[in-house]
Each structure stands twice: as C-alpha cells, then as structure tokens.
Design a protein that fits this description.
The chain is an alpha/beta fold and 458 residues long. It has helices at residues 133-136, 157-167, 188-201, 218-221, 224-237, 250-263, 277-285, 314-322, 331-335, 365-389, 396-413, 423-434, 447-453; strands spanning 4-6, 10-12, 15-19, 28-33, 39-48, 51-56, 69-76, 78-81, 89-91, 107-110, 121-122, 127-129, 141-142, 149-152, 169-170, 177-186, 207-213, 242-248, 289-291, 297-306, 325-328, 348-349. It folds into three domains: 4-76, Elongation Factor Tu (Ef-tu), domain 3 (Beta Barrel); 79-353, Rossmann fold, CATH 3.40.50.12240; 364-453, no CATH class.
Length: 458
C-alpha cells in the first residue's frame, strides 16, 4: 500500500526533503501533489533514517511546503520498450514527442540497468564503418567499443554526429543495425537540425531518438542518457541487433550533475564537479560492449565539448580514462574550412588493431595507416620549420612531406558531411596520396603490398 505524506521539511530547487518516512529506497519514484492538484514527479536521491531527499524532474517553483502531498511509488524510473521504438522520437524522460501513437510496450525496464559481468564480455573485434576516412582508416571504430569525440564550443560536432548516425554500419553481418541518438541539453535550433536531418535523409527509419532541450529541467538531463542506453541494451541483447549509441553533449550532463551536487551542499571536487564524477560517468560508458551468448552489441560514441578547448578539463580528462581512445576536432582545421575538422595526430582508437586487416577490412589497412600517420606528422614538422626558416631551409624530401601534408588535409580529411566513403575508398585515397612520397620513404609498408597496390609506372 502506498503511503502519503503531508508537508515538506525543506525545498531547495530541485530538491525537497520529506521527514517521517519508512521503507523508502534510493532511486524510488515519487509523486508530489501541489495544492492545486498538479502532480510533479521526482526520484529519491538519498534516504537515511526517517528522512528522504527527493530530486524533482520539473523543478520546485510554486511548491507550498505545508500543502504539498508526497507519495512514494515503490519502484524506480523505468522505460517502456518495444521493437516499435525504432523510427520514433522521445523526450528526455522517455515520453513520445513525435505526435505519433503510444507504444504497445513489450516490457518496462529499470533505466539504471546492470553492470555487465566482465567474465561474460566478448572482446570487441569487428569493424564498424562510419563512412568517414579519418575514423575508418586511421582511428577505426570497433563493435562494442566506446570511442568519444572531443570537440570545442562552436566546432561542428553536431554535423559529425548526424553524419555518423546516417552512415554507420557493420560490414559482413546479417544482424540488423540500429542507432540510438541521445541529445542532452541542446538548443531548440540544434534539435530541429537533428530532426530535419534524420527525417530528410531517412536515418530516422533505423533510429531511436531521445531529445532533452536546454530549457527542460536540468534534472531531466541526468535521466536522458540512461533512457537511451536502456533502449540500446534492449535492442542489442534481447533483439540481437548491432546498436550504435551517440550521446551529445556529455558536458551538459556533467554540468547538471554539478548543479544537483551543489543543491545537496556536497563538498565539491575539481572545478566544482562532485568527487564521484568519474564513477558516475563510468556507470554510463561501461554499458557498452558485447556479451557471450548474444550476437547483439552496444557501441558508444559520446560527444564531449571541452570548455575553453581544455582537454585537461575534468569531463574530457575522466572520459579519456574510462573510454578506449578519442576523436579530436581541431579549431585550426575548422578555420581552414575542412569538413569534418578531425585532427588525426592526437586522436586514437585503442582497439583499432583488433578490427582491421584481411577478412575484416583489407590486408593493407594497418601498414598504410602507420605510413600515413608517420608521413603526416613529418609534413607538419616540415611546415613548422618552414614557417620559421622559410622553404629554402627544407630538403627535397622535406618538401615532399610538406606537399603530402597539404594534400592529405585537402583530399583525405576534407571529405564533407554528406560523402559516405567505404573503407576501400579510404584506402585507395591513401595509396594515391602516398604516391607523392619517394618509394624509399615507404618504410612501414612491405614490398609485396607496394607492388600490389602501387606498382611501378602506374
């Protein structure tokens, strides 16, 4: 039987305190009825003795402490799931927002999920093609991996996120592929961009979209990524689908976490973020992976905007510890007009070696990747030297590397947001660029591969 409590002890937006409670549990759902009959939903954030602290999803403005009635519902926040979620749009709390009919739910799942037993994890080793050369060839995404994108304010991470959502696929697989897209604390204009792009390109037909707007209560942002990951886990591990989860922007999520922490008067950590920020982010990122006994998988691409382009900021810093690499957007490349402005040198995919090679991509993938990395790095060094001493200080080989660097950025990196390149396309462009260099400089590629893919006289 549900118990009703009259009156609140304290209200500190978005938190309310209720005394005289019994048997209340952490994460339990709560209904707070105002004097005019309006119901606001909340969740137990802390329960100790006869006192419960409740965080409200709609905020606490207008609440009269004396008249309010509180009902504890005895269950956590859940998401109704069904295969019919694909092609639908939801708000940050999992409510349908596309004007379509209600779902006929197959089941209702706790959005907090459960940690994957490490013993039951399968190692990620299958190539995911995004259609973007700088990722597929040089920083390969593998099924079951978590590979964040580090961006900066004003950089085109939303265009990159939409491009990946449109183009991503798992090669040589018969299982269905789906994208779960979670937009966290974005503006109305950004939301319209994603909605229009997904609708016009048809990407919505294989996507489940959750959108939390910047003017929604901050507390809802803490639920949005959990909603998305719950939907992804259902499709992956119960419907055996390959699911790619794109979450943008995790900085908005962390800022909401800081806001709630400040309201609870917790001792702040680095830059005001709570000391448990690492643990909290890990509970989200570690929900990616593959499980023995299931052909499905959850692959994550969280997008993090770095305040003041500072990669040592707590959010990207901790994200880098938890995840398996990073894709970094460059403001310098963006100012040059490159699309997408991915800087491949500091970018990294720690699992790329497991998803490439003969039978997965192509036999020349690893060696051309290493050669291109080396050549581009030497080209950037030559450019720095030339800016100080002039081109006359460069050797003939340095000038070739300089030419390679410029051609690499213009022909390889600058592919645009609506060009979908297969891995074969990316490899062929790589070989074309390597022709700029003397054959004696191709020290990271075997003679057999050079003769096969770049024969003399052709």
């Amino acid at each position: 039987m549900l118990k009703e409590h009259k009156g609140l002890s304290a209200v500190v937006d978005p938190l309310v305190t209720v005394k005289g409670v019994e048997g209340v549990k952490f994460d339990e759902l709560v209904n707070v009825e105002l004097g005019d009959g309006t119901i606001r939903r909340g969740q137990v954030l802390e329960a100790e003795g006869d006192t419960a602290i409740v965080q409200l999803f709609e905020g606490s403005s207008g609440i009269n402490k004396v008249d309010a009635k509180v009902r504890f519902l005895g269950k956590p926040l859940t998401l109704d799931v069904s295969e019919d979620m694909i092609g639908r749009r939801f708000d940050g709390m999992g409510r349908i927002s596309d004007g379509g009919p209600e779902l006929i739910a197959e089941k209702s799942l706790d959005i907090n999920g459960a940690a994957i037993n490490p013993v039951m994890r399968n190692y990620p080793n299958e190539f995911v093609q995004t259609g973007i050369s700088t990722i597929d060839h040089l920083n390969t995404l593998v099924r079951g991996q978590k590979l964040p994108v580090f961006s900066g304010s004003g950089l085109p991470h939303k265009e990159l996120a939409a491009q990946i959502a449109r183009q991503a696929t798992v090669l040589n697989s018969d299982e269905d592929f789906a994208v779960v897209f979670a937009a966290i604390g974005i503006t109305f204009e950004e939301a319209q961009y994603f909605i229009n792009d997904f609708t016009e390109t048809g990407a919505i037909d294989r996507s489940v979209v959750f959108i939390n707007l910047a003017n929604d209560p901050a507390i809802e942002r803490l639920a949005t990524p959990k909603m998305a990951l719950t939907a992804a886990e259902y499709l992956a591990f119960e419907k055996n689908m390959h699911v790619l989860v794109i979450m943008t922007d995790m900085t908005n999520y962390a800022n909401s976490l800081r806001e709630v922490s400040a309201a609870r008067r917790e001792v702040p950590g680095r830059r005001g973020y709570p000391g448990y920020l690492y643990t909290n982010l890990a509970t989200l990122y570690e929900r990616a992976g593959r499980i023995e006994g299931s052909t499905g998988s959850v692959t994550q691409i969280p997008i993090v905007t770095m305040p003041e382009d500072d990669i040592t900021h707590p959010i990207p810093d901790l994200t880098g510890y938890i995840t398996e690499g990073q894709i970094i957007l460059s403001r310098d490349l963006y100012n040059q007009g490159l699309q997408p402005p991915i800087n491949v040198l500091p970018s990294l995919s720690r699992l790329k070696d497991n998803g490439i090679g003969e039978g997965k991509t192509r036999e020349d993938h690893a060696s051309t990747m290493n050669q291109i990395f080396s050549a581009y790095a030497q080209g950037k060094e030559a450019k720095s030297l030339a800016s100080v001493l002039g081109d006359s200080a460069l050797t003939e080989t340095d000038l070739k590397y300089l030419e390679f660097s410029d051609a690499f950025e213009e022909k390889y990196v600058n592919q645009g947001y609506y060009t979908n390149r297969s891995i074969e396309d990316s490899l062929e462009i790589g070989w074309e660029l390597l022709r700029i260099l003397p054959r004696t400089e191709l020290t990271r590629i075997s003679e057999e591969l050079i003769e096969k893919y770049m024969p003399e006289g052709k």
